[in-house]
Design brief:
The structure is a homodimer. Chain A is an alpha/beta fold. Chain A folds into 2 domains: 127 residues, Aspartate Aminotransferase, domain 1 (Alpha-Beta Complex), CATH 3.90.1150.10; 242 residues, Type I PLP-dependent aspartate aminotransferase-like (Major domain) (Aspartate Aminotransferase, domain 2, 3-Layer(aba) Sandwich), CATH 3.40.640. Chain A contains 11 helices and 12 strands. In chain A, strand 5, helix 8 and strand 6 form a beta-alpha-beta unit. The first copy, chain A, is globular, with a radius of gyration of 22 Å. Chain A starts with 9 loop residues before the first helix and ends with a helix. At the A-B interface, helix 1, helix 2, helix 3, helix 4 and helix 5 of A face helix 1, helix 2, helix 3, helix 4 and helix 5 of B.
Chain lengths: 382, 382
Amino acid sequence: MKFPKRGVNELSILSELRSKYCLDAKHDLGEVLGSMTTKPLDVAIRAFEIFWRSNLNDPYTFPGSSIIEREVIEALADLYECNDCSGLITTGGSESNLTALYIIRELGFSTVGVPKSAHFSVFKACKLLKLNIYELDLDKDFRVSIGSVKEALDKGVRAFIFTAGTTELGLIDPIDKLGRVINEYSGLIHVDAAYAGFVIPFLKELGLKVPKVSFSNPAVRSLCVDGHKMGLTPIPNSALILRPPELIKYVEFPARYMPLNIQRGLLGTRTAGSAAALYAVIKYLGIEGFTEVVKYVMGLLKYLIKRLREEDFSVPVEPDVPIVCIEVKDPDKYLKELAKRRLFVYKCSLIKGVRVVIMPHLSRYDLDRFIEALKNVRREVG
Amino acid sequence: MKFPKRGVNELSILSELRSKYCLDAKHDLGEVLGSMTTKPLDVAIRAFEIFWRSNLNDPYTFPGSSIIEREVIEALADLYECNDCSGLITTGGSESNLTALYIIRELGFSTVGVPKSAHFSVFKACKLLKLNIYELDLDKDFRVSIGSVKEALDKGVRAFIFTAGTTELGLIDPIDKLGRVINEYSGLIHVDAAYAGFVIPFLKELGLKVPKVSFSNPAVRSLCVDGHKMGLTPIPNSALILRPPELIKYVEFPARYMPLNIQRGLLGTRTAGSAAALYAVIKYLGIEGFTEVVKYVMGLLKYLIKRLREEDFSVPVEPDVPIVCIEVKDPDKYLKELAKRRLFVYKCSLIKGVRVVIMPHLSRYDLDRFIEALKNVRREVG
C-alpha cells in the first residue's frame, strides 16, 4: 500500500485487521499442528500488559522490571539445578542460541560440535559469528552419536551444542553421558531446550524415565528455554541461563549515553512484558501446574501415536517429548492437501514425513479430526 | 526465587507484579525523559492483540500476518521514496542494524565506515559479525565529516552507516551530499533512522529545512526505522527496508522442517502483533496525523531549549530532531539527583551532559517540572 495521506478511524482499521487475521491458522480451532506457538495463559497476557512499556534494556529507569527478570532467571536456574547462574530474557530460541554461541566464541573457541539434528538457528548463528561447525553424526535412534562426539574431542573440538527436544523428532540428546566425557576434556556444552525446557523437568514427576538435563552436569555452561513455546507466554520470550554468572559480562557492551554506561544482550530495547509474563506463568503453575500441562500433552502424544498406528501410518521414532513425525512419501503434497482443510503441519526431513507438535491448545477432538483428514489425503495422494 | 512447588492464584500474582511496576518510571507521569520508549497508541495495542499469537516467521500457517507485514514494508518504502524495495519487521533498531550489516558483509564488504556518533548497536554488530570498523570523524557541528568520508573512500572503504537522528545529539548526518560522493565510488549506505524515521519525513510538511533522507539517493541500500519509538507501537517493533528487493535473499535461511523450506530473518519466531500494530498506526495517523505528532514534539523541543537557555543552562547543539543535550559538569551526579525526584534522563558523551528525548507522552507541564528540578540539582551539585 501507499503511505496514506489522511488517517482513518480506529474501528475500520481493526475490522480490516480482523478480516486479515481470518486467513491465519487459529490455535483455538485446532488448526495449528506444526508451529510451536500456542495460546498464552490469560495470566501471562495480563502480566505482559502491565509491563508492556517498560524496557528491560534499562534497569535504571525501569528497576521493577529488572527485579522481575532476575527472579525469573533465578527460578529457572533453580529448576535446572544451578545454584550460581546468571542469565537474561531474550526474544526467542534463535536469539538465545546466538547469544550462547557468541559467548562461546568470545571464550576463545573457534569450532563448535553441532549434531545434524540441531535447530537451523544454530547453523545460522555459526554463519553469523564465523564459527566453524564440526557436524556430529546421529545414532540409528536419531540422537547425537556418542562415538561421533568422542571423535570430535579427539580432533580438538571442545565446545558443543546439544538439543533437549529436537525440533524434528522430539528427542533428547544423551546430554548426561556426553557431559561426563566432555568434562574430562575440559569442554563445554550449550543446551538448546527451546521447545522442551518446560517439558523435561516435569516428565520425571510423571514417573517417566528421561535423560537428565541440568547444570548438575559440570560441562553444561548454558541452557535456553522458550517461554512462548511450552512456557505459555506471548511472543517474544526465551530465557538463557549462564554458568558461571560472570559469563554475562561477555554480552555487556559499552553504551556511553545510558545511565549505567553499559547495555546487556545482543539486541537493544526489550519489553519487560516478556519477563513479567514468564514470571506470572511460573508462579501461576508451579511445578504441580506444569506437571499437569505436561501430563496433558504427553497423554495426547500417546493417543496420537496409538491412533496413527491403528490407521496404519508409520511413526518410526518414539519421541521423548510431544513431537510426532509421520512417515509419508511426499510431505509437500500432504502439507498442501492438509492446508486446504485448514490443518497446518510442518515437515520432518531426517525421516521424510509430516510432523505434528502437540501444544496445550490441542485436544483429542482436534487429533481425531486431523487423523481423519490424513486418511483422506492418503486416499487421494497415496 | 525458587521455582515454586505449587501455583498461586492469578490476582495475587498480578497484584505483586503491579507493586513491582510501581518502581518503574511511568511515561504517563512525565517521568521518562531519556528512554526512547513511549506510550503506544490505543489502536496499536488493539491491533497487536489481534495478531498476538500469529508467527511472522511462518507465512504458510499465518498468511494474513504475512500480508500485513508486506503492506507495512510497502508503505514505508513509499514514504522513503523507494518503488522497488523489500524488507521485514524486526524486534528493534539493534536487530535491524545487525541485519543490514550482515547483508553488507555477505555482499563481500569487510570494512564499514562508521561515524563516531553512530549508535552502539552498530559497533556491537560489527564485533558480532567480525566486520572491520573504519571510524569516521565528526565535523565541529557533530555530524559526520565529509572530509573523513572522502578519506575513507580513498583508502578503499565502500560500505557506510549514517544516522538520521543521532542518539546523543539528535542530528542528521548529511546523507544526501555523502550519497552523491559514495555513489561515484559505487559504494553503499545503510541509514539508521531508528529514532527519527517517523519524524524526518514529516518535518518538511512543517516547512522545516532538513537534509533529505530517502532512497532517491542511489547509494542508500537499506534504512531502518523503529515502530516502538516515534512510531507509537508496543515493543518490539522495527522495520528494515532493503533495495534492491533481492537483498532479502541474504537473510533467507534453509529450514527443512518448515513448510516453505526457508526461514527469513536473523531471529526466528516473531509476533505478527508487531506488523499489525505498525499497520494500524500508519493507517490511523497517515501523513497528516504523523505531521501533527511531529509538530507537537518539535514545539516542545523549541520550548525546552528556550526555557533552558532562559535559566542559563548550556545547550550547545541545535538538534534536527527532538533530542536535547544539556551541558553539565558531572552528568552522573545529575542523573542520580534527578532520579531521586523520579525524573529519568540519559547522558550525552560527545558533549558532557544530560540528555532529554522528547517523546509524545511529554507535555509542557512535564518539561517545566523537569527544569525546576534541574535548577534545584544545579544549586546542590553545581
